[in-house]
Amino acid sequence: MKKIKLLKIIVSIFIVAVFSVLVLGGLYGLNSANYYDKLTMDEALQNREMLENFGCLDKTTPTAYGFENYEDIKFTSPLNKKITLSGWYIRTGKTENFANRKLLLITEGRWVNRLKAIKYLEVIKNTGLDEQYDIYIGDMRNAGDSSVGNTGMGYNIAEDIAASLIHLNQTYKNNSFAIWGFSQSGMAAAVLADRKDLQAELNKRHITIEKTILDSPMSNVFKMIEREAETNHIPKIFVYITYCFMHFDYDFYVDKMCLGKILNTPPYPFLILQSRQDQLTLYSFFEEESKTFSPQVRVKLFDIGAHVSSYLVSKNKQAYEEEIKIFLEK
Questions:
Q1: What is the pLDDT of residues 19-29, one digit of tens each?
Q2: Is pTM, for the whole model, over 0.85?
Q3: What HEC string does the chain produce?
């Protein structure tokens, strides 16, 4: 009897230990997906190699691209008082009356900040779009001078984008917007189009999103997590446990975090710019998702170019600028 009792204790301890390992592994996976080291503005500005990789070496302010009338702003999110957001608000209008002018919001992805996106001011200047749009290059949570926060692989970034639009509307009176999101923020911009709670916040303030551009967007969150686990030789069971926790953490929305579902019936037009050589947001994932895109979604593929770097390839520049100009001017 004593041996049986001892065996039961050992088995119980083993089951508890295995369960604890699985739960802790899943929580670790969730934390890794939601949080990552924030790159501050000072850290980026002091790293010339990083700035060169960003494509903005010695051109780190809007002034360097011909936009002298700008403000470096910081504000509390009107949708989450625990989050502070920051960015450059660039006024391109010819008078002080900015009411009813369109605004283009640009935001980057994981592990970087707005300095990664500043080079796209060149696109706006070269295409003459600054005659039609004011510009906001924003750091959402966990980037630049904004708060550290749970990004939700883009789910919570969508809230920050909506909060930025609300703040810009309240402060500068812009009420018609276009969004340009990269990588994780590309997924976030798509999620924003689909989340009824955030659309309700915008609608009650008479804020309109007219169009959205996605460059190298995350196309399927689950597949990205699965691939990352395979690359790091992590047992598949931890992927499923992490994904289970994501359901609770992302308000049971995570199953919809694939572009094929979100962009099947989008509320406004989308332009997606994607490189076939992208090794982070794989083209094979994107190609599968694109099969169910609405006719409102235009796709431009580039044969060469790394993740969020198609524009840095000289061969791509003209076509890239033309796509942006045609889409935003329509």
A1: 888 889 889 99
A2: yes
A3: CHHHHHHHHHHHHHHHHHHHHHHHHHHHHHHHHHCCCCCCHHHHHCCHHHHHHHCCCCCCCHHHHCCCCEEEEEEEECCEEEEEEEEEEECCCCCCCCCCCEEEEEECCCCCCHHHCHHHHHHHHHHCHHHCEEEEEEECCCCCCCCCCCCHHHHHHHHHHHHHHHHHHHHHCCCEEEEEEECHHHHHHHHHHHCHHHHHHHHCCCCEEEEEEEECCCCEHHHHHHHHHHHCCCCHHHHHHHHHHHHHHCCCCHHHCEHHHHCCCCCCCEEEEEECCCCCCCHHHHHHHHCCCCCCEEEEEECCCCCCCHHHCHHHHHHHHHHHHHHHHC
